[in-house]
Amino acid sequence: MEHFIITEQPATIRMLAREALRGRWKFAFLGVFIYNLALTVPFSVLLWFFDDAMAFIPLVYMLLVAGPLTLGLSMFVLSLSRNQDPQIAQIFYGFERFGKSLGVFLIISLIVTLWSLIALPAVVLVAFTENLLLIPLIVVAMIPAVIAGIRYSQVFFILADHPDMGVMECVGRSKMLMTGNKMKYFVLQLTFIGWGILAGAPSGVAEAFFPVAESGSLLMVLFLSIVPGLGVVLLTVYIFTSTAIFYDMASGNLRPGCIVSTAEIVEVEQVPDMIQGSVEQDAGQNQESGGDDLAPENEQKNELQRDS
Fold this sequence. Notes:
The protein contains 14 helices and no strands. With 308 residues, it is mainly α. It folds into two domains: 10-259, no CATH class; 269-308. The longest helix has 38 residues, at 270-307. The chain is globular, with a radius of gyration of 27 Å. The termini are far apart.
């Protein structure tokens, strides 16, 4: 399989995402909201029910459902970005490929975790010395883990498009797609940082003053798990759709010059017909304009013939 180096600017990718979401923001919000409910609400409830000795139970839940739900969300967002027929039920389609989605999630988590261990000595050094000036050292040491996360960021989109691929095949395919595209992807995600701070502020404030684990009632747990994160849900719609556009560009499904205003994907086979139609239209216009330009010249020739 081939891949393409993306030359489009992040602003163009975001514009295509907005075009794909035009008139469907509410529907997309609903889909991501349900994804967020399925992922975070049971985790928060389990965290509230079980004490520290059983704190691993919420983590086991997250471990089991994060992969399938992310795969389902990828299928849903790809349908949106391609102007197809997305369905809310697609959020749960990932459970039909539970083994592969779980395997992909575990492999990627393991790879990123191993790379992040490079920063462990820096973290220990800062903890023991209590020298905050060494914090940039931790940031630098985390760069390999960030690169690894970017390298394998397309795995769930690939699995959504190619259900017959194996886990390691999807991982390898993502690595190939991101060759030469990692910096472009990083810059694209960086453009959302302002929106991320704004959208995440309510959740941060709520957790700081009303920690879910210390909430006295289940209703408060549900409220804190849902309401403060609504801004994050809306931003997730925008980011995931932009990332889906990025994936289609990197895989060659969406190419410059083959994009229409509704962000539909124009099949490659249709391009020659489109070009031929454009050429014929231009030729017809040239003939009409050419005929008008030659009319005075023909009249002059006829007058000369009459005079002679």
